[in-house]
């Protein structure tokens, strides 16, 4: 029986090799906000279940989200939604073949961050 051959090719670089850049950071953030929105969707379903079938659950969740920690969670979900939306629109432009030049990639990344924060503040102020 022969022994497995070891390849002399270099190993693929990983996060410890590269320094963080806005492109990689925003890509990771897009995935994380997607996960966070999945948690938000589960909580929304629980809240809707309480609204329809269990008044004590509904009141408990509504009371929780009226407090400071609950409001921080709600704002984080609004921010995650707006970031995911804006970055998704950015990806649609990329799918159309636009904005691949490095200066445009950086500019659109900063625009996504600014737009998501501004939209989140506007949504939050509109809900007061």
Tell me the radius of gyration.
21 Å
What is the number of E strands? Answer: 0
Specify the CATH architecture: Up-down Bundle
Content of β-strand: under 5%
Q: Can you tell me the number of structural domains? A: 1
Whole-Å distance between the termini?
73 Å
Question: What features would you describe in this structure?
Answer:
The chain has helices spanning 22-53, 55-66, 68-95, 102-126. The protein has a single domain (22-126), classed as 3 helical TM bundles of succinate and fumarate reductases. The N and C termini lie far apart (73 Å). With 128 residues, the protein is an all-alpha fold. It is built from 4 helices and no strands. Helix 1 packs antiparallel against helix 2 (55-66) and helix 1 (22-53) crosses helix 3.
Main features:
128 residues, single chain, 3 helical TM bundles of succinate and fumarate reductases, mainly alpha
What is the gist of this entry?
With 128 residues, the protein is mainly alpha-helical. It has helices at residues 22-53, 55-66, 68-95, 102-126.
Task: Describe the secondary structure blueprint for this structure.
Blueprint: H1 22-53, H2 55-66, H3 68-95, H4 102-126
Helix pairs in contact: 1-2, 1-3, 3-4
